[in-house]
Amino acid sequence: MLWGRPRTFFSRVVAGEFQTMTAGMTKNKAEIQTEILADVLHDRVGQVYGPGTGIDGLVRLSGGASRETWSFDALLPGGGRKPLILKRDPLDEQTDTQLIEGEVRLGVDRWTEGRLMQLAGEVGVPVPEVPFFLDADDRTSAGFVMQRLEGEALGRRILREDAYAEARPKLAFQCGEAAARLHGIAAENLPPLPVLPVAAALDYNRDVVDSFKQPHAGFEYAFHWLRERLELAGDRLGLVHGDYRNGNLLVDGQGLAGVLDWELGHLGNPLNDLGWICIRAWRYGYYDKPVGGFGEVAELLDGYEAGGGARVSLEALHFWEVFGCMRWGVICMTLAFTHISGRERSVEKVSIGRRAVEGEYDMLQLVD
Amino acid sequence: MPTDRPNTAELVEAVREFLSDHVAPNVEGQLAFHTRVAVNALAIVERTLAQGGAMDAAELVRLKDLLKQNGDLEELNAELSRAIRAGEMDDRKDALLAHLRQTAEDKIALANPRYLTKRG
């Protein structure tokens, strides 16, 4: 475990010990957890919005072993509602398997994630507001609460549905602009973050591949190619979103409404984000639009300059696209090995291992 | 491996058809998604049974040629990976890249052939 929190209460809930707590009624684990969370949130909205604030419509959005997300409304004492989302760490011991999923072992805690969103909002990045946090205690794991914005985050729908036809042509520019702003947040304002300069990021991925004990010539070529061209990456060190891509962007009819999922935020080379949003994995079939399946590289880089970023050379972007393809392949393998190692048996995870070659194949088209 | 019919490929095909024709239409949500994933995984197995042997043989020929040594696929891939990391393949870069690209293309042809029909 990366962060400590009291276990006893939850393990008893998980064991079903509390199923007969209420006289004459049997409640399942999920119902009990929902009731406890409703109490926690009721207390917190009272502190934040004033006594008499209620909550309504608490419902869990994400299932399975991922981080929990919940939707609810705060009912203000003077009338009116605040639509909110809670993102918190999983309660169950067994769901901690996700810590080694993908690159989550680089991931930040929920306080840091929420704090990064607040800081991004202050410099004009579209993000949901983060009005308050939950500390881990005997009733809940740690989490943060954010504004529930209208919009679509599923990459495929953003590219396909008519509702986003006007938004799509604007997105690449807007993504560049938002990236420049988040990259420009002064280091002294940032909370403590993992530090991962390009060479360390490369080592990290190579170590992950080594841990599989499965020599892989294609990825070795990527490591070698990147290692020989480190100077192309640039030596900037700043806030990196860490998963800046179509799929983590909330889009409404007008364009970019929110940048989501900040848990891989770290200090590194910011251009990493620009390469990542360009890899083919996020184009969902719209291959002629390199940026997220919706836009052109020139639009992304123009937006980056408009947002206050320096002009990005195509050579540097190319380096980070190669890096991104490699990284996508390594993430696919990592997911497969969570199944193979027995940490979490899943036909979905093991199957995604066969997508590693997509990153490898794309990388091999980009290198010389 | 038994060669009696049903052979391995026919069994895998039967399970894939069962999942796609009889299970998939009757489930929804997460279960429907995982059923599609399972159908795709079995399709990979079927393509591998049909084409994987020839691909392996061709890969082995390329590896022996590239490394100028004998061994099986596992040994030679381990050796190639080591040599790339050590910088020992730099003088054969074009041949190396041609080999890696062919190998990746073969793997995609098994894992997701549609990926090859569109360049992006």
How large is the radius of gyration of chain B? 19 Å
Low-pLDDT sequence parts of chain B = none
This entry's quaternary arrangement is heterodimer
Q: How is the CATH topology of the largest domain in chain A named?
A: Aminoglycoside 3'-phosphotransferase, Chain: A, domain 2
Radius of gyration of chain A: 21 Å
First-to-last CA distance of chain B: 40 Å
Distance between the termini of chain A: 42 Å
- Structural class of chain B comes to mainly alpha
Given the structure, what is the number of helices of chain A?
A: 13
State which percent range the strand residues of chain B make up. Answer: under 5%
Query: What's the number of extended β-strand segments of chain B?
Result: 0
CATH superfamily of the largest domain in chain A: Aminoglycoside phosphotransferase (APH), C-terminal lobe
Number of domains of chain B: 1
Pattern of helices and strands of chain B: HHHHH
What's the overall geometry of chain A? Answer: globular
Number of DSSP strands of chain A?
10
Mean pLDDT of chain B: 95
Shape of chain B: elongated
Describe the largest sheet of chain B.
none
Report on the biggest sheet of chain A. 5 strands, antiparallel
Structural class of chain A: alpha+beta
For the structure shown, list the relevant keywords:
heterodimer, A: 368 residues, alpha+beta, Phosphorylase Kinase, domain 1, Aminoglycoside 3'-phosphotransferase, Chain: A, domain 2, 2 domains, three-stranded mixed sheet, 13 helices, B: 120 residues, mainly alpha, 0% strand
